[in-house]
Amino acid sequence: MKLDAIFISGRTVNQGVNLENKSSTAYFDAAGYCEMNSTDAGKISTDPGNNVKVTTDFGNVVVPMRICEGNPDGLIFIPMGPWANAVASPDTAGCGMPGFKGIPATVESTDEKAPTMPELMARLK
Amino acid sequence: MIIKDVICPFCGCLCDDLAVEVENNKVIDVKHACKIGAAKIRGHNRIEAPMMRESKTDEFREVSYDEAINEAAKIFVNSKRPLMYGWASGLCEMMKKGVLLAEEVGGILDNTASVCHGPSALGVQEKGIPTGTLGQFANRADVVIFWGCNPVQAHPRHMSRYSVFAKGFFTNRGRKDRKIVVVDVRKTDTAEMADEYVQVNPGEDYKLLAAFRAAVADKADVIPDTVAGVSKEKIVELAAAMKGAKYGIVYFGMGVTQTRCKYKNIDIAVSLTTDLNAYTKFSIIPMRGHYNVTGAGQVFAWETGYVNGIDMSRGAPYYNPGETCSNDMLMREELDSAFVIGGDAGAHFPAQSIAQMAKIPVIQVDPFHNPTTEMANIVIPVKVSGVELAGTAYRMDSVCLRMRKLVDVDFPSDEEVLDKILAKVKEIKGVS
What we know:
Chain A is an alpha/beta fold. Chain A is built from 5 helices and 6 strands; from the N terminus they run βααβαβββαβα. Chain B is α/β, with parallel strands linked by helices. Chain B starts with a strand and ends with a helix. The interface between A and B is large, with 52 and 69 residues.
């Protein structure tokens, strides 16, 4: 079962705390996850801490899922950083700004492992 | 020793009331800062020495500063289209040197606004900006709108110092004297604290702003029953609250600059603010992220006329976001080197753009290992500005402040590195 969703990224306190500590596991914990509400999590039969695979036209990424009831149905959030960037759009729509918010995505439960920051960057070399 | 009135070098709030305890040239305690500012001032594991490698899949080898700087200069001289990105975690003094280097090498000068408030600059160029200082907002604003921003997470002391809880001359009861409205696509922690949470559909901010303009102009008859997921009734009610403010302020963030319509959202938000000034006093201000990204815009604008996305290759500054910003140029595969200083392109550009960086030589000037390091060929560690180096920074409201030095370290400053690269470039090119 795949969930059709809209992906957005954004700041969090812990992502900020680890901005100069990006090689650490603390940074992965702070920026490598995907939030959705419990209704959406139920639709793809996943529990908090289990990995989900987020796919857009621009790439895919595996991250642990967390519940955030503040998200409306069909809205997923990944903190800004390399994991969010894996599915962000490089199209700047003629004004220099890539697409970090409002990107159509699908989300599914997965047994695949979530990549570390160096593993994510190595994918791009 | 306790150093008082330290200015925090993390976000655009530039909180200026920190007390930092330093013993034996080490920071041992940080008081009054938020969790993020304290973490920055306490410090993290840093890059200890300059490093180089031929291929991005090789291991780095340690080199001298001279060797790293000479090689960086050679890359600049051999590049036709060098990107020079970042700048916002540095001080204004070094940005000025960056402009000189960009002039000499014909570089593309771009700062982190490119993936942050670059669209705000475009919106402001279209419509101007009725704005003020954070002190004015703290002392006067009784209607406070956070549109597409989440200060609880991104600017943790903003609310206590300036916008929500701050007690000012005309707002001496703090929170009780203010109506707080949050417009966002999800119920954020900031929304939880608001008097009114308005949930806008993703990508439909422009429609909602247009509906507010109609309601403010007493043209509610043209507003459909629901706009962008918000009822006409709520729009009319909030428009009346805005017009009834003694002083209103709109703080806005990435929720409008990064979503559909991008700079046009800023354009119409400024227009709404201007409209409201026919009835009361209303201001609008972007919530800036890096502590000195506002300074980067200031320095680049006074040196070149433009705030970001500046192509210096024509002998005169040329600016056309959509063509000359980092991600535009990376995706056109037009760049033949990248110089990243005071910013982390590797962590904050879409993966497809970073994959283009993997194909060209990358020079990084930064105190810390980060995703850009993973893509770099030359890494030059420097002082942490605002902790190990004093100088000028601009708060998000363009108030200019002097950052303090708290401890001494042996690393060179980014300004010194830029000076040396520029001197070497001139030497190689045989110009004085």
